């Protein structure tokens, strides 16, 4: 897999007041300068609904047509034999076993009926307290260790076999009628393990990123994701058990994922598209740690564009020395929304109150005119 590179050495990461770390210009940068091109090893998921339509290697999507080159046993398709060869070359035989096990397991979810909600249980469940979230992940580490012991043995004991079957049954339990949603969640967790096997340094860099969000929006998802993760670990071949991430690391990656991932939108695959993010269908999402240091502004100075698997970030205007460089997290909607709506969207989606110059100026204006 190609690595990332700063096409310009005129930028660097630095602390920025009120927003952790950001990206700054070390020297003046012309407009339309490419700052970054990357096709790093990163976490990614193609949503189950689209798995037959999006090339697992390069993310090529052609108006919803199914690709014919397949690797059915691991639930992926490719636009060409060349993409298939590149994708499969990265996978060791044992990783292939894990991915096939995970795919078989995901298919079992289709046969499971969702657990009916208890009487009085609200549909719009509440966000669990962050101490409960932390404690649940910490507590599940003991089970993880027991699962790892069990699967490392040639002949697991009766109680170990029971543990594995309980863990696997719990991972399939769901409250959602839409089995695709559960499969997406499973496959997302499987991509964390796969990334750790293929590129442990990507996981290390991800764990260094800051986030203002909890990993869950609904309390019922907490148990579900813990159980799904334990079940996935039980599917690892013994040679790969050393790549099982501690449960607290999974909680952190889930939280980072929520606030740092980029959507894979069908429109932005089109090279001739004049828009950087022409939105139509959301095919999946990807988390690219090397691109995650850019803060948001409602007057962005950098455009981001994805062509297939590769992201390119380029300046839209001249940037001066020591100026912070911003992208937009709102995909162009910042141009039409008012300050309240922009801030609300960023708070809901990313968990922060936007402190960009535009929001600060407009919120001061509205306070003064009140
Ligand atoms: C993708 S990360 C950007 C890098 C991050 N600043 C860091 O230190 O790793 C997104 C996080 O940066 C902060 N952030 C980004 N843009 C911001 C803004 N306009 N106002 C306030 N905080 C912002 C928020 O904490 C947000 O959750």
UniProtKB/TrEMBL annotation:
It comes from the Eukaryota. InterPro entries: H3K4_H4K5_MeTrfase, SET_dom, SET_dom_sf. Residues 9-330 form the SET domain. GO terms for cellular component: nucleus. Pfam families: SET. CDD domains: SET_SMYD. PANTHER family: HISTONE-LYSINE N-METHYLTRANSFERASE SMYD, POTENTIAL PROTEIN LYSINE METHYLTRANSFERASE SET6. This is SET domain-containing protein.
